[in-house]
C-alpha cells in the first residue's frame, strides 16, 4: 500500500516549469483571466473541492487545493435512476476505486490504479514495484487558472462524458442476436443535475442522455422512447479517512467481503494480505466488557417506506445488536426515520438508508451494497434497496413455467454476490406459506407472521451484507428435519445464519407450523461478527492468537460456512451438496420429500383455495406456477447429493483428523437417487396437478396473448424439471467425479448410479410423462456415449452410457401393450440402433 508519487517533488516540478507555460497559454483567452475573475459571477459551494456553477448557462467548474493533487481519493459511482435493460437501477452501487488528480505541466490528469500489489518498502524489489502494471488515465483537464494555492478546472468535460465511469453496458461478444443498446452519449443533452459538497466528500449527480437513432430492441414499457434514454448517475469523491482504523485480516473459514492484496515480496505458501470489509467500531469505554461504540452504525428508514412495515424493518436492523453484544458492543446499530421534509436525499453517501421502491421491472426483492475504502476495507457507506414486489403476489420470474419456461435460472437469478436474489425466493416462499395456511394477504399485516418474519428475515439478510458478511449457503443444517419445525426450540433461528437462502419453512402436512424464516441472528452470525468486530489487542502476536482462538471453532457444525463460490445452485458446478440454496435441515432429502408431499397436497386444495366468486383464475395460475417452482426447486437440491463431496476448510490440527474432501456416503447418495426416482422420474410425477390444468388461465389483458398460445403445457413443465436434474446428475463433471472419488472413499460407483437411474426412469409403469422422460434419457445417453458426433465426456462415462443403452435396447413393450407403448419402444429401439450404426 506504499504511496508512489511524491507530492513535494511534483509540486516543485510544476512550480519550476510554470513560467515557460505562462507564455504559451497567453494566447488562450481563458488563461488571460485570473482565478478570481473566472469565478466572480459563479455560484459557489465550498468544501472538499469547490464547485462553481454559472447560473445562466449551468456550466460548472471545479477547484482543488494544490495539496490535494497527487493524493488518493476514494471514487464511487452509484446509479440514481436508470433502466434495468441497460443494467442500471436506483441505488445500484457500481464502482469503488482510488483516483488521483495529478498535475502534468498545465494540465490535470485523472488517474486510477489497482492498489492490490504490495511491496515491503525495505525490500529493494520495491524499487521495481511499477513493473508490468498499467495505471489508467481516465481524463485530462486543462488548468484554467492556478492561483492562491488552488487550481481551477472546467468540470463539464469530466462529468458529461463516460471518463470516470462507463455507463453503457460493455459489449458482450458471447451474446448472440440483437440486444438492447443505449446508443451514443449526447453531451449536449446530458446535464449536471445537482451537487452536494461537504467538507470530506462531494457528490455530483449527472443525468446522462443517450441517443439511438435506429433502436433494434425497444425494451420494456418503463422506457418512454428507446431513441432517447436517461440514466442518472452519482459520482462521489471521498477524502481518505484520517483515523486510526486497523484493518482485520481475512480468513478462509469465515465469510466476509474483502479487499485483496498480493504481497509481492513475501515468500510464504499463501502470500496474501487480504482484509475484510467492516465498520470502524470503537468502544467508548475500552475496558468495559460491554460498551456503546464511539460512533454507532446509523440506519435511516427512507420516507418512502409504507408506515405499517416500519416496525418490522426497524426490528430487522436492531436484532443484529444481539450479535454485536456478543462481540462487546451495545447499541452498535441505531435506526432512525428520514423525516418527510428531510433536506438530504437517500443517495447521499453520508447516510446509510433502507430504501423502498416499486419498479416497473424489479431487478431483485432486496439488495444490500456497501462502499469500502479500497486500501483498508473500512466501510464508509451502504444502502439497502427493497422492492415492493417482495410483498406482493405478482409473478416476477419472467415467463411462466406453465407456458414452457425453462427452470435453469430458478435458483440462479444472478451470479453476482452483490446482487442478492434472495428476495425473489422469499417472495415465492410467502406465497406458499399463505396458500398452505389459507391466510389472505394484507388482512392484518402486523399480525401476519409470514409477512413479518419474511420481512425481518430479508432485512437481517441485507443488513448482514452491509456489515461485510457474504452469503452462507451451508448454514441450513443447524436442525434436523423434526427440530426445524419446532418453534419452541428454534425461537426465530431455523438456520445457522440469516445469510443463507433458505426455503420458506412450512410444516409438512399434518404437522404444527413452526417458524417460517430465520429472523434472529444464528450461531454462525454471532461467531462471524465476533471475528470481524471484537476489539483487537494492541500486541500483534497476542492479537493473532486471539483471532486463531475464535477461528479454531470453524469445524463446529453450527458454524458451518460456504458461500456462492462453493454453492451448487448451477448444474455441474461445485461439489458440496450441503452448500446449496433452497435446502433446509440437516437432512435436505427428507425435507424435500416433505415439501413434495406438501405441494401435491396443495395442488389437491388449489381449486378450493385459489378460486373466488367474481374473480378471474389468475390466482390459480400464479399459485400453480409457484407450487411447481417449489417442487422443482427441491428436485434440484436433492440431485446435488449424487456424486457429491463434503468440503471441510478447518486448518491442520484444529480438530481430530481434518480431511478437506470426503465423498458423500453411499447410503446418502442412494437415498437421494431413490427420492428422485419416486418423486421426479416416476410415471405419476405431479399427477396432482392434473385436476388444476383446466383452470390454469391467465387473466386476459388487451392483446397480450397475441402470438402466445395460452394453454398450459404439463408435459413440457415436467420434462423441464427432469432435464434440470439430468443437467446435474448427467453432467460431465459429476460422472467423472463418481469415478475420481472412488479413489478416495466413494462407494457409489458410476455404474451403480446409472443403473439406479435407468431403473427409475424405466420403472415399468407407462404414462405419457414416463415415455417423454425415457426418450429424453436415451437421447442424453447417446450424447454422453459420443455415438453421434463427439462427446465431451471422459472415457469411463462414455463406456458406462453405452452399457445403459444396451440394457434399454433389450427392453420391449409388454404383451398386449397398446399402440402408444409399442410405438414408444419402437422409437427407442430406432434411436439406439441408429446411434450404434452411426
Ligand atoms: Zn444476499
UniProtKB/TrEMBL annotation:
Signal peptide location: 1-22
Domain of life: Bacteria
Segments forming a coiled coil: none
InterPro entries recorded: DUF5117, EcxA_zinc-bd, MetalloPept_cat_dom_sf, Zn_MMP-like_bac
Domain named DUF5117: residues: 95-283
CDD domains the record matches: ZnMc_MMP_like_2
Keywords associated with the record: Signal
All copies of domain EcxA zinc-binding, residue ranges: 447-765
Name this protein carries in UniProt: DUF5117 domain-containing protein
Species this protein is from: Aliidiomarina maris
Amino acid at each position: 500500500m506504499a504511496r508512489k508519487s511524491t507530492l513535494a517533488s511534483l509540486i516543485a516540478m510544476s512550480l519550476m516549469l510554470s513560467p515557460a507555460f505562462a507564455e504559451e497559454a497567453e494566447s488562450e483567452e481563458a488563461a488571460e483571466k485570473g482565478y478570481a475573475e473566472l469565478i466572480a459571477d459563479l455560484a459557489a459551494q465550498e468544501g472538499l473541492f469547490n464547485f462553481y456553477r454559472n447560473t445562466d448557462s449551468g456550466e460548472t467548474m471545479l477547484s482543488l487545493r494544490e495539496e490535494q493533487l497527487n493524493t488518493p481519493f476514494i471514487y464511487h459511482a452509484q446509479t440514481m435512476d436508470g433502466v434495468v435493460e441497460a443494467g442500471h437501477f436506483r441505488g445500484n452501487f457500481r464502482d469503488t476505486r482510488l483516483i488521483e488528480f495529478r498535475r502534468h505541466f498545465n494540465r490535470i490528469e485523472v488517474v486510477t490504479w489497482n492498489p492490490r500489489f504490495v511491496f515491503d518498502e525495505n525490500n529493494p524489489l520495491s524499487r521495481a514495484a511499477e513493473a508490468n502494471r498499467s495505471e489508467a488515465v481516465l481524463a485530462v483537464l486543462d488548468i484554467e487558472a492556478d492561483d492562491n494555492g488552488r487550481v481551477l478546472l472546467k468540470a463539464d468535460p469530466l462529468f458529461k462524458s463516460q471518463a470516470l465511469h462507463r455507463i453503457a453496458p460493455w459489449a458482450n461478444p458471447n451474446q448472440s442476436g440483437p440486444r438492447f443498446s443505449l446508443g451514443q452519449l449526447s453531451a449536449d443533452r446530458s446535464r449536471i443535475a445537482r451537487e452536494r459538497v461537504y467538507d470530506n466528500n462531494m457528490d455530483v449527480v449527472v443525468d446522462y442522455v443517450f441517443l439511438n437513432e435506429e433502436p433494434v430492441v425497444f425494451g420494456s414499457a418503463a422506457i418512454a422512447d428507446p431513441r432517447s434514454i436517461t440514466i442518472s448517475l452519482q459520482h462521489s469523491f471521498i477524502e481518505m479517512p484520517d483515523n486510526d482504523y486497523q484493518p482485520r485480516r481475512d480468513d478462509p473459514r469465515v465469510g466476509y467481503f474483502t479487499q485483496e492484496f498480493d504481497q509481492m515480496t513475501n515468500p510464504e505458501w499463501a502470500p496474501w494480505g487480504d482484509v475484510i470489509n467492516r465498520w470502524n467500531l470503537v468502544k467508548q469505554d475500552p475496558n468495559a466488557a460491554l460498551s456503546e461504540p464511539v460512533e454507532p452504525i446509523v440506519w435511516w428508514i427512507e420516507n418512502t417506506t409504507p408506515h405499517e412495515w416500519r416496525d418490522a424493518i426497524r426490528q430487522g436492523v436492531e436484532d443484529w445488536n444481539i450479535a454485536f453484544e456478543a462481540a462487546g458492543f451495545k447499541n452498535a446499530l441505531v435506526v432512525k426515520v428520514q423525516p418527510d421534509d428531510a433536506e438530504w436525499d437517500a443517495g447521499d453517501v453520508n447516510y446509510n438508508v433502507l430504501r423502498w421502491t416499486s419498479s416497473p421491472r424489479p431487478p431483485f426483492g432486496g439488495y444490500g451494497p456497501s462502499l469500502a475504502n479500497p486500501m483498508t476495507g473500512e466501510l464508509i457507506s451502504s444502502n439497502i434497496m427493497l422492492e415492493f414486489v417482495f410483498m406482493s403476489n405478482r409473478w416476477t420470474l419472467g415467463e411462466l413455467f406453465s407456458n414452457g419456461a425453462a427452470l435453469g435460472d430458478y435458483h440462479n437469478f444472478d451470479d453476482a454476490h452483490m446482487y442478492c436474489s434472495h428476495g425473489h425466493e422469499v417472495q415465492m416462499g410467502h406465497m406458499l406459506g399463505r396458500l398452505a395456511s389459507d391466510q389472505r394477504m394484507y388482512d392484518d399485516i402486523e399480525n401476519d407472521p409470514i409477512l413479518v418474519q419474511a420481512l425481518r428475515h430479508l432485512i437481517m439478510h441485507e443488513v448482514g451484507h452491509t456489515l461485510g458478511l457474504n452469503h452462507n449457503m451451508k448454514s441450513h443444517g443447524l436442525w434436523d428435519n423434526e427440530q426445524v419445525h419446532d418453534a419452541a426450540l428454534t425461537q426465530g433461528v431455523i438456520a445457522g445464519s440469516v445469510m443463507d437462502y433458505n426455503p420458506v419453512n412450512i410444516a409438512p402436512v399434518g404437522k404444527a407450523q413452526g417458524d417460517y424464516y430465520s429472523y434472529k441472528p444464528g450461531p454462525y452470525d454471532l461467531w462471524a461478527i465476533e471475528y470481524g468486530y471484537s476489539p483487537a489487542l494492541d500486541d500483534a502476536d497476542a492479537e493473532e492468537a486471539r483471532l486463531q482462538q475464535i477461528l479454531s471453532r470453524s469445524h463446529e457444525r453450527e458454524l458451518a460456512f460456504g458461500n456462492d463460490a462453493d454453492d451448487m445452485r448451477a448444474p455441474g458446478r461445485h461439489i458440496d451438496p450441503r452448500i446449496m440454496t433452497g435446502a433446509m435441515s440437516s437432512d435436505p432429502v427428507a425435507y424435500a420429500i416433505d415439501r413434495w408431499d406438501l405441494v401435491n397436497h396443495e395442488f389437491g386444495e388449489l381449486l378450493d383455495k385459489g378460486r373466488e366468486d367474481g374473480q378471474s383464475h389468475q390466482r390459480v395460475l400464479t399459485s400453480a406456477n409457484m407450487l411447481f417452482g417449489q417442487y422443482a426447486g427441491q428436485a434440484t437440491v436433492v440431485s446435488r447429493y449424487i456424486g457429491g463431496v463434503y468440503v471441510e476448510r478447518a486448518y491442520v490440527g484444529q480438530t481430530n483428523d481434518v480431511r478437506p474432501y470426503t465423498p458423500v456416503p453411499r447410503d446418502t447418495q442412494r437415498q437421494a437417487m431413490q427420492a428422485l426416482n419416486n418423486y421426479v422420474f416416476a410415471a405419476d410425477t405431479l399427477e396432482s396437478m392434473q385436476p388444476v390444468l383446466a383452470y390454469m388461465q391467465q387473466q386476459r389483458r388487451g392483446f397480450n396473448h397475441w402470438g402466445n398460445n395460452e394453454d398450459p403445457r404439463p408435459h413440457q413443465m415436467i420434462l423441464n424439471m427432469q432435464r434440470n436434474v439430468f443437467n446435474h446428475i448427467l453432467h460431465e463433471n459429476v460422472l467423472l467425479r463418481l469415478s475420481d472419488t472412488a479413489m478416495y472413499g466413494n462407494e457409489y460407483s458410476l455404474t451403480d448410479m446409472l443403473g439406479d437411474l435407468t431403473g427409475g426412469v424405466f420403472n415399468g409403469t407407462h404414462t405419457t410423462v414416463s415415455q417423454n422422460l425415457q426418450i429424453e434419457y436415451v437421447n442424453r445417453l447417446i450424447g454422453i456415449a459420443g455415438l453421434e458426433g463427439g462427446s465431451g465426456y471422459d472415457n469411463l462415462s462414455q463406456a458406462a452410457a453405452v452399457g445403459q443403452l444396451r440394457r434399454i435396447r433389450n427392453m420391449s413393450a409388454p404383451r398386449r401393450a397398446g399402440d402408444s407403448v409399442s410405438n414408444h419402444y419402437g422409437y427407442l429401439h430406432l434411436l439406439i440402433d441408429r446411434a450404434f450404426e452411426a
